[in-house]
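Deliverable D5.2: sample structural annotation.
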Amino acid sequence: MTAMWAAREHHRFEAAGRPFVYLVPSAAIFELDEASDSVLRTLNERPRTREELTEAFGDAEPAIAELARVQAIAEVSVPPPATPKVIPLAPFPLTTMVLNVTNQCNLSCTYCYEYGEDKIVDTENGRQPKFMTEETARQSVDFLLKESGKVAHITFFGGETLLNFPVLRKTIAYARRRAAEEGKDVDFSMTTNATLLKPDIIEFLAENRIGVTISIDGPREVQDKFRVFSNGAGSYDVVAPKIRELLKRHRSRPIGARVTLTSANLDVKRIYRHLTEEIGFWEVGFAPVTTSASRGHAISDDGYDRMLSQFRELAYEFLEASVANRHHGFSNVKETLEELHKGVSKAYPCGAGLGLLGVATGGDVALCHRFAGSDAHKVGSVTTGVDRQAQAAFLEKHHIANKTDCSVCWARPLCSGGCYHEAHTRYGDTGHANLHYCEWIRGWTGVCLQIYGELSVRNPAFLAQFDDQDMKETVS
């Protein structure tokens, strides 16, 4: 019987006038020559014999051999390799610990997830106090250094982080001393809404080279729609001058903005321009709001289409700037380019429950900062350590091999089903694939592949910057 050849799972795209292929699940990217492209496209229509390919394209043997070598095609009789279900061996090093130093905030943002129904705040019984104590923070540092490798990252989070600045300041000093004793390096970052950025705090952040991410949604009318004080007053006029002072004084590390997109603020380009050109941020990252589909600020299918259109235009601005070796601060595309360049193929969507853990104000350890304070998503405490049985059960359940909805999606190497907290909010199950934004993810991944292909042809040196960079979790 004559062997039949067929295309294996892939996504073909064009960039700089040339054909490329993104192979799934290896996450490899190849530029195709004319013969290989012709053979692959033909086999994508239906299986063919070697003789049929030779008849159609002449000497197709080199193209067949090369496509088979990279597993873009295979004989029909050879079954596709199953997705390996490799569970990371425990204990594995903890790289990032997010300290929720408070669950309180001086703003009342309509879309905030901090006060979700899964959170427990019971100060009478000592469960999840409003503020983390200095003792709990020290215990958290000791926990991190025990579980980490040579380099550890601490991110301070809230609520509004700076409401507990005294503990933050003392924790940094303690962590530096303890890390030196352990022969390790420790790095610090924090997220803040900027309302409490007083001169002495700004000075401290600058002197100590603390990475800072500012949660801000854009120009005054955008910011003041959701990011309001408890009396309904907008926060833009309070935070804008403080941010400018921070940017003026703190130059040792880039300061980034993190924008929450809702159905009411999808003018991504305008927001980006305001935050970079008028405020002065080095980079800006955007994330769609995490909320129930029934809420008014939830993004609809049409909204995701609008968002993708805006992202695409900014991404091509990023491309032209990068070709000319100019900086462009659209961090979403840069982060995805790094993953593509490194051939990331994820078994899990993020480091939650793996190299990243969140610590609640009372010391409970959760899957990530978004689940800090949720009993249902607790995996230990800073005093007793990680519950390895709970961690193993989590990793077993949430592996991409269990998400059958994802099994035929070509974008799964980067997405792996999406954010656990998003799935919990939308579907009541952290293991559920985030089906409501599948088209958005595929669309955005496709844009980033085109940008990657263009850069590989027009300025490959730009991509070389990712070769030696360690990938870090983005906390938002």
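Annotation notes: Residues 115-126 have pLDDT under 50 and may be disordered. The CA atoms of residues 36 and 64 lie 7 Å apart.
The annotation will be released with the project's public dataset once the embargo ends.
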